[in-house]
Sequence to fold (139 residues):
Amino acid sequence: MKLGEVKADALKLMGIDNLMNVTWGDIDGLKNHPSYATYLFAMVGAIKRALDRFYVKGAIDSPIQTLNDSTAEAADLSDYGVNDVLARMIPKYVVGELYAMEEPDVAANSRNEFESELEEYLNMQCFQQETVDVVHPIW
Fold:
């Protein structure tokens, strides 16, 4: 999943007028729009904090230091060790942070969904067995 896709999904979750069909390719053009620039600027920090949360919880192996305001929208989060399942959770974290003052109920619900999905993901990782070394028949 691309960084721009995360931002586009966050804008959609925020329900901002006229952005329900926004794609990651539209993000650069929206950065100069007075209604969206503040949200898009703040998203980078929120995304970094979501990635930090993944690291603290053990969902990714190392902290991500290189994500910043100049990171291209086309940057693939898998290059940072973030799989698509985790990447699809990030917009909910972003909404939880960016809407905390304007829409506290929406923000709280979004953040709760993020935390629930992350816990479910981590629980599933604990129960996945990758290989079986030896199978012994029971007689």
In short: Residues 3-127 form one domain. The chain has a mean pLDDT of 88.
